[in-house]
Amino acid sequence: MSLYADDDPTKALALQDTDDDPALHPPTDPQQLFNAALAAEPESAHQRDTLLLAAQRFEEHPERLPQLLPQFLGFISEGGDSLLRFWTLDMIHLAVGRGGLSGDVKQLVTLHCFPRLLQLLHTGSIPTLKAVIPILSTIYPVLFGILATSNTQASILQMFNDMKSTIIDFALNKSGQSGNVGVRAVAWKFVQKVILAATKPATSGDPRLQSRGSSVTDTNISHITQTGILSQAEIDQEGKKLQTELVTALYTQTEPAILHPIINSFPSLAKMRQSIAPLVVHSLASWKPNTMAAAGRPAIEIRAVEKTVRIAMTHLIRHPPIASHAAQLNDALLRQKKRMEDAFVEEATARKERRRGTKHPMEPPAGVDPESSEQAAKRARLEGSAGGVGSGVGKGPVVDISGMGVEEVVETVISGLRSVSSQTLVSALENARQALREGSLDAQPLLASPLGVGAAGEVKAEDEEIVNPLDIEDDDDDLLMMDDPELAIEEEEPTAFTDFVLPPPEPLDPSDKDYILSNTIERIWQSGADLASLPDPKETDAAKTAIQPKEMWMLLLARLATRGAEVKRKTISEFVLADFANRSKFASVWLNEEWYNERIGVSEPRQYLSNLEAIVSVYLPKVDPKDKYLATFIQNLPAIPPSLIDILADVCQDSERAVVGFTVLRDIVESRPPVREQALQTLLALCTHTDRKIRVMAIITTVRRWGQNSPMMPIITKYALSVLWRLVEAKPEVKNEAVKEEGGEAETEEQIGESAETDVEMKEEQPKEEGSIDRYLEQPSARTVQQHVELAFALAKRQQSLLDDIFKIYPQLIPEVQKAVEEQLMPLIQSLGATPKLMEILKKFPAGADQLVMRVIGVLSAEGAGQVLVSLVKSVLAERELDPKFVIPIVGELDKAEIEKQLPKIVSMLVDPETKDMVKTAFASMLQKMTPSDLMVALHQEGGAPLKEIIEAVKVCFSMTTVFRSDVLANAMNRIADLPTIPLIFVRTIIQVANTYKSLAPFIANHILPKLVAKKIWENGQLWDGFVMLAKRIAPASYGALLQLPKEQLREVVGKQPSMKAGLKNFLASKPGSKGALLEIFGDDE
């Protein structure tokens, strides 16, 4: 749970028990996520997850796609089936299909992406084709509309026809080879788009279809104008041909994966183009699975296709414009139903026959008599023993189970056996086994008694006659009474009155007294509960009383308890705790009475406090986290003792009951000024608790509840700052043993004293909260930073003026604590965003806070605040000499010229190997405004960066294999070779390219080396040595370029690389008229 979101405090219970740093949520800027994916290891899980997050952000902000798609297109033409290729294709599909973009924007995106998509159509990669063809199906109507209404370039029409013919060939499989089923399936969906565009919509019928037919997304042949480049006659002929191909495929295809998209396209064609509805209806109604059955397709596949056909016909029946074909469709559905039922019966019969064929009869082995004497004896023995079990008649009531189901009988038997103990059941089984062995007819009835069978005694032969009282006459009552001899004797004795003295009552036992007292209280309470159903008195202008007339029994019972012995109070307390939820109001009345009697001197001192603690201490351990009665009860108390606040503090430290404790403490602070200070200090101390769950709940209780105008807020702010300033006291962790350097001197007592005085002076400058409770605070260190800063950071979310103190404290911290503070502060910065106050601090941050400011700029840039940060960073760079790291977060927002200006500073960071990933991320961000070739050329141009760091920067580019592919490097090398001055590291880069991409050796030999020769590369010693090494590395491809060297330099090459001599001689000998050149260059050493 975040401290900077308006969450329910009860959600803090879901926090883990560890003091883990709060995690930053992924950046909201999709471009930042994409740059992070480019900088990640290619094809890694991290790159995949980052691309998924970037896709989610682009779905939320599709308007960002058109300006970024040109950058993405470079990742799909080369590089194979990579994560970046398929992610880029998804983004293109999002932009032209699902994104909420206007039609004009979609047209621009389509024209920009179409050439690259067409390239992928000829790659031959199955996964790529499955991804590209659906995109081309989406943009086909857009391209059709452009070509139908404007006379565009002929190249677009050529690419359009190429796309159409290629995909249709995939669908029809004209090559005769068994093409990939998935590719053919998506190709048939493309054919549906072509048929729709080549067919005119209905001129009458559903007006909704007419309006749809004229929309941009449903372009068709009627949109072709005279200015368009398309031919209406050719398109119409093509549409009719494809209709025939579609119906033919329906009857001839046997692959379900192809039949399903074909059948599913029929309803859309019939609904959107009513002119071909008769063809669609007739084709579906006449279809039979004969071709599939003849091809040996499994019955389950045939049944699946049948269901698809049935769904399609049912869908068409429900469409009103096709009502004229309803009879034909209904008849086809009946025939199909009969056909499917017959097929199901036939399949079941065949399955049963196959199952029967797999079973083998139990025949005896050859040579064995089916009924041998031994088997016959065994059978006879079993049949004889079966008769000795007994009939079971007489063991209990007879129940006819012939009309009961087997499951019901089994359930009845099991339920009966459940009432039998395991020992009895074991004895019964042993008895049955004994009966089987001995052949006795009856076993001992062990189960009879537990099952309630045979347990009844002997029934009397003659039962007494039962008399119905309703049939007795009134006079017969006397006769019935006279039948009792005792009554008759009592009637005959005379009654005499004598002097009677009531004997003294017998003394009751203490237990009896307690029982009577408790019973009396219970009767009073029950009587009062009966009065609760009475209506409340009508509201009047008269003063309201705390006790309503129907609740007077509470006051009576409270006064009985307060004016009696201690045992009554104990009884009352137990009575309240037995049902505190319903008796909490009575408890308030009783304790108010106790408090009043104590004040006027009627009761003994501490009666109120002891009874209150007795109730609270017993009820709190079992209080429900959602309890609301305790807060009401404490609010109605006449006085809040300090001991109660201490008890509530203990409750707050129990995660299961903490919500109740925090709620009560918060209400006490708000409504009880006499104890506000103690309760507030208790809450503030809990805001620095060692357990983060407790700490977060305390902070939420205080910060979220009270606003700026609350009387508690100044106290909270002062306390938070005093805790924050304690971090300045943190010291680096050192060993206990004093370490003395060689040649140094031990620290003297005077120096230690001076250091201590300095610390004291520093502490005196820090704001301290007098009387603050630091019972939970540990010593300031990097490990306890979170405990010290969370309260202040949570306040800074609502009081951004506290950010000044945070940035002021940061430079005074030791490095370990600074790093921990940065980690804790970043979620707050991410939650705040680029607020004016934060921008003001970043512009005038104190000296020593550079690292923190760079982290803040990086987080804000990831949240999409790049445009705001660009001007800020530029102004700061103009005023101060800052680290180049400041530029990295906003480098993607700079234009190309500014990027080239800042590039040497960024490259110079590579002097520290730990900055390699940071530079890699910066390069990925630069690709928003420049191509990979531009970046490689800019790195080779003369700049302010050292040569060693430039070499490392080139290595970083080579590590981004997804971006710097072979075609990109070839383009970059060609451009660098055309520069007026050859860069010093250029030959080294070419060697690295040759080692990485062997296929570029001919390109280097035929295009790069001749340009280097033309620039007289031998005049630069370092470049010349590299040139010779490069020529040897790519030989024999380099022989042609070497022959362009002057003879002297060629001899030098041969002298430096003698192994090339034979190859060069053979290469030169193959040239006509080369004998003289051989003698001149190599001499007569042959």
UniProtKB/TrEMBL annotation:
<keyword id="KW-0507">mRNA processing</keyword>
<dbReference type="Pfam" id="PF12295">
    <property type="entry name" value="Symplekin_C"/>
</dbReference>
<feature type="compositionally biased region" description="Acidic residues">
    <location>
        <begin position="744"/>
        <end position="759"/>
    </location>
</feature>
<feature type="compositionally biased region" description="Basic and acidic residues">
    <location>
        <begin position="760"/>
        <end position="772"/>
    </location>
</feature>
<feature type="domain" description="Symplekin C-terminal">
    <location>
        <begin position="883"/>
        <end position="1056"/>
    </location>
</feature>
<dbReference type="InterPro" id="IPR011989">
    <property type="entry name" value="ARM-like"/>
</dbReference>
<feature type="region of interest" description="Disordered">
    <location>
        <begin position="348"/>
        <end position="391"/>
    </location>
</feature>
<dbReference type="Pfam" id="PF11935">
    <property type="entry name" value="SYMPK_PTA1_N"/>
</dbReference>
<feature type="region of interest" description="Disordered">
    <location>
        <begin position="737"/>
        <end position="772"/>
    </location>
</feature>
<feature type="region of interest" description="Disordered">
    <location>
        <begin position="1"/>
        <end position="28"/>
    </location>
</feature>
<dbReference type="GO" id="GO:0006397">
    <property type="term" value="P:mRNA processing"/>
</dbReference>
<feature type="domain" description="Symplekin/Pta1 N-terminal">
    <location>
        <begin position="127"/>
        <end position="352"/>
    </location>
</feature>
<dbReference type="InterPro" id="IPR021850">
    <property type="entry name" value="Symplekin/Pta1"/>
</dbReference>
<dbReference type="InterPro" id="IPR032460">
    <property type="entry name" value="Symplekin/Pta1_N"/>
</dbReference>
<keyword id="KW-0539">Nucleus</keyword>
<dbReference type="InterPro" id="IPR022075">
    <property type="entry name" value="Symplekin_C"/>
</dbReference>
<protein>
    <recommendedName>
        <fullName>Symplekin</fullName>
    </recommendedName>
</protein>
<dbReference type="GO" id="GO:0005847">
    <property type="term" value="C:mRNA cleavage and polyadenylation specificity factor complex"/>
</dbReference>
<dbReference type="InterPro" id="IPR016024">
    <property type="entry name" value="ARM-type_fold"/>
</dbReference>
